[in-house]
Design a protein that fits this description.
Largest sheet: 8 strands, mixed
Strand order of the largest sheet: 3-6-2-1-9-13-14-12
CATH superfamily: Acetylglutamate kinase-like
Structural class: alpha/beta
Radius of gyration: 17 Å
CATH class: Alpha Beta
Low-confidence stretches: none
Helix content: 25-40%
Number of domains: 1
Strand content: 15-25%
Shape: globular
Bound molecules: Isopentenyl phosphate
Order of helices and strands: EHHEHHEHEEHEEEHEEEEHHEHE
CATH architecture: 3-Layer(aba) Sandwich
Length: 257
């Protein structure tokens, strides 16, 4: 089984509220189908989740009444995005089932506590692709919080030990600086704990679910259980190549044990 995350920056325009990249999503769905691999799919929230979540500081948990309608709005919006993903997968000929974290997961002080992984196993067994996504979730200590796609990826990788875990980003992989704004940014082909420690500690690319550093920490954990790659989902063919275990431009994440 291969675990895939379609980053929110790939399937949406993160700067414009609820803006889907329809063509990219359709192509990625076709690449998954063409690979013939058995997969579990996680997707980020992009502009369907992060904008309103950040405005209302939902990642800090419940602390004022005005957050309640905002939390509900984010849950509505990420479901709309999820439905678009589900539609594209069905159109590509990939039967799939949506597993919303707000219904099957719980956080504790912002950390993922419970996730019903048996549901994923049962759908997989039936040849149905389980699809989950970054969402608002109940939190046993904070009322509610944000469950990120990366937290879900870590738990699913721990449980299912996929042969490969692929993160689809909007750039070629992990860089030494932000490739969108820094012309000196260099692609890091192999990332390990040492590389992470040596990266300059800015809050680069931070959103409500953390900076690039937080993401790399999740990836390093995942690399304990699985071969882990970060690739560019905006470049046609790269996801299919990675799924077929072919050489592909990107960053390989390696855990030093
Ligand atoms: O896009 C964030 O999940 P991510 C979820 O995977 C929300 O970081 C609702 C902002």
């Amino acid at each position: 089984m291969i675990l895939i995350k379609l980053g929110g920056s790939v399937i949406t325009d993160k700067t414009k509220y609820k803006t889907l990249r329809t063509e990219v999503l359709g192509r990625l769905a076709s690449e998954i189908k063409a690979s013939g691999q058995k997969v579990i799919l996680v997707h980020g929230a992009g502009s369907y989740g992060h904008i309103i979540a950040a405005e209302n500081e939902l990642q800090k948990g419940f602390f004022k009444e005005s957050q309640v309608p905002a939390a509900s709005q984010v849950m509505e919006d990420v479901r709309v995005l999820n439905l678009e993903v589900i539609k594209c997968l069905n159109e590509a000929g990939l039967p799939c089932a949506s597993l919303p974290p707000s219904a099957i997961a719980k956080l504790q002080a912002g950390e993922l506590k419970d996730l019903d992984c048996q549901l994923f196993a049962d759908y997989l067994e039936l040849g149905i692709v389980p699809v989950t996504f970054g969402d608002v979730c109940l939190d046993t200590e904070r009322g509610f919080g944000i469950c990120s796609g990366d937290q879900l990826m870590t738990r699913i990788a721990e449980t299912f030990k996929p042969t490969t875990t692929i993160f689809c980003s909007d750039v070629d992989g992990v860089y030494t600086a932000d490739p969108h704004s820094d012309t000196d940014a260099r692609l890091i082909e192999t990332i390990d704990q040492k590389t992470l420690d040596e990266l300059p500690r800015s809050q680069r690319c931070a959103d409500v679910t953390g900076s690039i550093f937080k993401k790399i920490e999740h990836m390093l954990n995942i690399a304990t259980y699985s071969k882990a790659l970060v690739i560019n989902g905006l470049v046609p063919g790269r996801l299919k190549a990675a799924l077929c275990d072919e050489e592909v431009v990107g960053s390989k994440v390696e855990r030093i044990l």
